[in-house]
Amino acid sequence: MAIAGTILGRLLKAALTLFAIAVLNFFLIHAAPGDPAAVLAGEAGAADEQMIADLRAQFGLDQPLYVQLYRYVGNILTLDLGYSFRQGAPVLDLILERLPATLILTLTAFWISLLAGVALGVAASARVGKFTDSLITGTALLFYATPLYWAALMAVLVFSVQLGWLPGFGYETVGSGYGGFDRAIDILKHLILPALTLGLFFMAVYMRMTRASMLEVAQQDFVKTARAKGLAPSVIRRRHILRNALLPVVTLAGLQAGQLVGGAVLTETVFAWPGIGRLMFESLAARDYNTILGVFLVSALMVIIFNIITDIVYRLIDPRIGQKA
Amino acid sequence: MSLWSRFATNRAAVAGLIVLIVVIIIAILAPVMFPKGPWAMVQRPFLAPFGTDGLPLGTDTLGRDVMAGLIYGARVSLLVGLVSTVMALLIGVPLGAVAGFYGGWVDEIAMRFTEFFQTIPNFALAIVLVAILEPSLTSITISIAIVSWPPVARLVRAEVMSVTRREYVDAARLAGLSNLHILTRQVLPNTVSPIIVMASLMVATAILLESSLSFLGLGDPNIMSWGYQIGAARTVIRSAWWLSFFPGVAIVLTVLALNLIGEGLNDALNPHLTRKGKS
């Protein structure tokens, strides 16, 4: 019951957020220099006069601003994200076609960074002040300061160009004719470098959080009790400390998921990964604002969905949450 | 112990400070060191580093001096990092302070607003803003400020809430001081240290954001930056590694230095918060 109520509340909030983003998009189009119709059609003369006139009529640019706003938001809420004159296709189709690649990339990167980050954080906290701790903390600091796209480029340089271990370009081998299992392995090989480099920064974030959280929980009374009972340190760490220390990490992971989607723009650009991030990059050069705003909206939607999932997971891990409210 | 001596006990933070000072000096002296500027073609393109006298880091795809670009790039990184952080503070501090001080519906509205901006993917919003406002130093700085202020607002709100509950604030109320006076003279000064720590980390994040925008081709077209250098060399990574390698090292060093300084400041300003084992 409690969970159903929560989900309903979250969905309502999600709808409001989406509405607000649609409104924001509308004002952004009007903030761009020049005629909104020309802006949407792409500036570099991609659309002819007739198209622009049609657009003007469609958006009712002769109408008062609030009527235009009403129409625009209505379009977006019915999932009509407009037309990309550059690519000659509806924006929604372009995005849906590319979405699976981005989902594969971001979800893989998310799990790699979360699992590796928590594991390293636990390892560091178990040897506080020792060499292992300094090594892990130092490496995390370095990853934390490394630009995503540069890590990606250097990974291509080392593992793809120099060593030739992994492909550094694309989603699968073009024209290989692989099918079934072979194709899956091929995609997996292409996925390793993008997912690892996208996950590095976030791994550093989760590692720092886990380490701090583990150290904090280790000070609490129930841990002393467990120790007094004579439990082995590894059992205390796993059953008593880690379980409690994970809660703030899960919260952070949910919040950080949004950054992961943003980071995908950089990673996909470097690796020519055919996702919505790469679509956004291509649209930037073409000044295809309709597509840019569409990708922006969809990535915000992904974040909202991610947050709802985190919220539910959180409540399942810790039933105490939600009872107070 | 004085603030400085507490800061100085953290060797990594001091190292960070030294690196930052060097970068600042380099940024200031750029026009003296390279009077021709970063865009001048000085030699034939694709000269490898360490091979030619006067061109320690070689030349890029258009025969420009990579070293000159690197030195000039320090200017835009520091400038955008600093100015966007100040702007983010100017949005976040007042909003968080008012929310935390007045509470109730003011707090509710301010926090819903903040939450909205936190939900939107940071980097995607920055891209959209710069793309639509046309890339320029101003639009980049404003965009980074717009995506960076929410954590400040939340931090200040929490700090103000806890300080406002203290007795001396009640005393100030009884003494008949105005709300504005209490907030600006009695409460906010006591929230300064965590804000300073957060600001130093924000400068680091802003530098990363700026370089990422420039990498995607959303930099100011008239200004040489590290992100632009890497972005322009992206397609020739196989033949000219040095074009993307050195600017990246510059970014990592600068951002790392700022993060170390931030941690050092945190330990020095909030000694009672420093956890055991957080060496």
UniProtKB/TrEMBL annotation, chain A:
<feature type="transmembrane region" description="Helical">
    <location>
        <begin position="103"/>
        <end position="129"/>
    </location>
</feature>
<keyword id="KW-1133">Transmembrane helix</keyword>
<protein>
    <submittedName>
        <fullName>ABC transporter permease</fullName>
    </submittedName>
</protein>
<feature type="transmembrane region" description="Helical">
    <location>
        <begin position="141"/>
        <end position="167"/>
    </location>
</feature>
<dbReference type="GO" id="GO:0005886">
    <property type="term" value="C:plasma membrane"/>
</dbReference>
<comment type="similarity">
    <text>Belongs to the binding-protein-dependent transport system permease family.</text>
</comment>
<dbReference type="GO" id="GO:0055085">
    <property type="term" value="P:transmembrane transport"/>
</dbReference>
<feature type="transmembrane region" description="Helical">
    <location>
        <begin position="187"/>
        <end position="206"/>
    </location>
</feature>
<dbReference type="InterPro" id="IPR000515">
    <property type="entry name" value="MetI-like"/>
</dbReference>
<feature type="transmembrane region" description="Helical">
    <location>
        <begin position="12"/>
        <end position="32"/>
    </location>
</feature>
<dbReference type="Pfam" id="PF00528">
    <property type="entry name" value="BPD_transp_1"/>
</dbReference>
<keyword id="KW-0472">Membrane</keyword>
<dbReference type="InterPro" id="IPR045621">
    <property type="entry name" value="BPD_transp_1_N"/>
</dbReference>
<dbReference type="Pfam" id="PF19300">
    <property type="entry name" value="BPD_transp_1_N"/>
</dbReference>
<keyword id="KW-0813">Transport</keyword>
<keyword id="KW-0812">Transmembrane</keyword>
<feature type="transmembrane region" description="Helical">
    <location>
        <begin position="292"/>
        <end position="314"/>
    </location>
</feature>
<keyword id="KW-1003">Cell membrane</keyword>
<dbReference type="InterPro" id="IPR035906">
    <property type="entry name" value="MetI-like_sf"/>
</dbReference>
<feature type="transmembrane region" description="Helical">
    <location>
        <begin position="246"/>
        <end position="272"/>
    </location>
</feature>
TrEMBL record, chain B:
<dbReference type="InterPro" id="IPR035906">
    <property type="entry name" value="MetI-like_sf"/>
</dbReference>
<feature type="transmembrane region" description="Helical">
    <location>
        <begin position="240"/>
        <end position="261"/>
    </location>
</feature>
<dbReference type="GO" id="GO:0015031">
    <property type="term" value="P:protein transport"/>
</dbReference>
<protein>
    <submittedName>
        <fullName>ABC transporter permease</fullName>
    </submittedName>
</protein>
<dbReference type="GO" id="GO:0055085">
    <property type="term" value="P:transmembrane transport"/>
</dbReference>
<keyword id="KW-1133">Transmembrane helix</keyword>
<dbReference type="GO" id="GO:0005886">
    <property type="term" value="C:plasma membrane"/>
</dbReference>
<feature type="transmembrane region" description="Helical">
    <location>
        <begin position="76"/>
        <end position="102"/>
    </location>
</feature>
<feature type="transmembrane region" description="Helical">
    <location>
        <begin position="195"/>
        <end position="219"/>
    </location>
</feature>
<keyword id="KW-0571">Peptide transport</keyword>
<dbReference type="InterPro" id="IPR025966">
    <property type="entry name" value="OppC_N"/>
</dbReference>
<dbReference type="Pfam" id="PF12911">
    <property type="entry name" value="OppC_N"/>
</dbReference>
<keyword id="KW-1003">Cell membrane</keyword>
<dbReference type="InterPro" id="IPR000515">
    <property type="entry name" value="MetI-like"/>
</dbReference>
<keyword id="KW-0653">Protein transport</keyword>
<dbReference type="GO" id="GO:0015833">
    <property type="term" value="P:peptide transport"/>
</dbReference>
<dbReference type="InterPro" id="IPR050366">
    <property type="entry name" value="BP-dependent_transpt_permease"/>
</dbReference>
<dbReference type="Pfam" id="PF00528">
    <property type="entry name" value="BPD_transp_1"/>
</dbReference>
<keyword id="KW-0472">Membrane</keyword>
<feature type="transmembrane region" description="Helical">
    <location>
        <begin position="12"/>
        <end position="34"/>
    </location>
</feature>
<comment type="similarity">
    <text>Belongs to the binding-protein-dependent transport system permease family.</text>
</comment>
<feature type="transmembrane region" description="Helical">
    <location>
        <begin position="123"/>
        <end position="147"/>
    </location>
</feature>
